[in-house]
Amino acid sequence: MGCIFCKIVAGSLPAKKVREDELMLAFHDIAPKAPTHILVIPKKHVGSLAEVTVSDEALLGRLLGAAAEIAREQGLGRGYRVVISTGAEGGQTVDHLHLHLLGGRQMHWPPG
Ligand code: 5GP
Ligand code: ZN
Predict the structure, then answer these.
(1) What confidence score (pLDDT) does residue 21 get?
(2) Known catalytic residues?
(3) pLDDT tens sequence across 37-63
(4) For the CA of 7, the nearest ligand
(5) Angle at 105 between CA 96 and CA 110, to 5 degrees
(6) What's CA 103's distance to the chain center, in Å?
(7) Which residues lie closer than 8 Å to 28 by C-beta, 6 or more apart?
């Protein structure tokens, strides 16, 4: 299995962890695009948002809820953005579902 995020979950690839429970792991992005840039991922391998099924609904809720709690902990009271790049045209480069939590600067619209 060559998935780098599965390796981070397994501990064979290092990461700056922020939060972890039995379903999810959050860690700092290696190439931050904002002062705060944290990735929130499921511990089980899910390729992308396009691959989730109804049985993943609780997992998706946990990921989004974790992102909100981390945002509070990180002091992002002025606002932040959560992004899920999905598929090649969506700009996804790592094929393991992840939420980007971005904050600490003004966000713009439309995104690139
Ligand atoms: P995507 O482009 O799929 O939406 O997001 C993938 C993210 O993973 C990118 O922001 C990239 O910087 C980050 N990333 C890629 N490889 C690693 C790694 O080995 N460690 C960490 N912490 N982040 C990574
Ligand atoms: Zn994976």
Answers:
(1) 97
(2) 98
(3) 999 999 999 999 999 999 999 999 999
(4) 2
(5) 65
(6) 13
(7) 15, 16, 18, 37, 38, 39
In 3-state terms, the chain is what percent helix, strand and coil (to 5)?
25, 20, 50
Query: Which segments of the chain does DSSP mark as H helices, in order?
Result: 4-10, 57-73
Q: How crowded is residue 50: how many other Cβ atoms within 10 Å of its Cβ?
A: 11
Report the C-alpha gap between 91 and 85 in whole angstroms. 6
Q: Which atom of ligand 1 is nearest to the CA of 85?
A: 4
According to CATH, the topology of domain 4-103 is HIT family, subunit A (3.30.428)
Residue from 72, 84, 87, 90 nearest 36 by CA: 72
Asked if pLDDT for residue 1 goes beyond 80, the answer is: no
Q: Return the ligand number nearest the Cα of 8.
A: 1
Q: Could you tell me the two tokens for 104?
A: 């600490």
What are the domain boundaries of the chain? 4-103
Ligand 1 probe mutation, 7, 8, 93, most atoms within 8 A of CB:
93
Residue 26: is its pLDDT beyond 70? Answer: yes
